[in-house]
Amino acid sequence: MTPTASTTTRDRTCTRQDLDRLMARMTGDEKHGAAATSTLDALWVLYDRVLRVTPETAGSVERDRFLLSKGHGPMAYYAVLAAKGFMDEESLTGFGSYDSPLGHHPDRVLVPGVEIGSGSLGHGLPLAVGTALGLRAQGLDAPGVWVLIGDAELDEGSNHEAIAYAGAAGLERLHTLVIDNGSATHGWPGGIASRFQAAGWSAATVDGRDHGALYAAFTAPHAGRPRAVVARVEPKDA
Hints:
The protein has helices at 7-11, 16-24, 33-50, 75-83, 124-137, 157-169, 192-198, 211-219; strands at 65-68, 145-150, 174-180, 202-207, 227-232. The chain is of the alpha/beta class.
């Protein structure tokens, strides 16, 4: 059964502290707990202060699109969606069970507000590039396209093709959020942001737990260029 939007949740004001309670309702995927918590603050700032999408506008062509490429360990994503009223809080309790729509990777046809079904790493950024191109072709200049990837996904060649193309195409409405928890096998002189900058992107590196820094980086102007924000968090094995 597809979880429905929660009137109770949507009508009250949630805070960052609510997310810990919501996350606690989901068990059974402890090995990906670090992957989930690494994204929690960045996801909250996006949904609470930046993204122009609500349960009521999730079907609007003018909505902002958010694509979760780092789909393993989706508990933080589900918690934020529940906090923002896209689903009932009660849906979280069945996470990962046989008859729950909340699988170990989000499913776009089962979970309200989810834009893509994520599985193998490295797909989200190319899909975001295609989404931004599609919106441009339709003359839809207002919607922003956001994709969250993990630093280890940058080991995949598909992402580097997407980075190179997006910079050359000047996809201004495209934003990539890289959660850097030290998982990547490969690196770049000057850090991850330098890889995007070399391809013509606007890029910044911030503390992934600092909400003010995240918001400033998310909303910084970047005329004519796609935007990348690298959010550094504690190493996965810390």
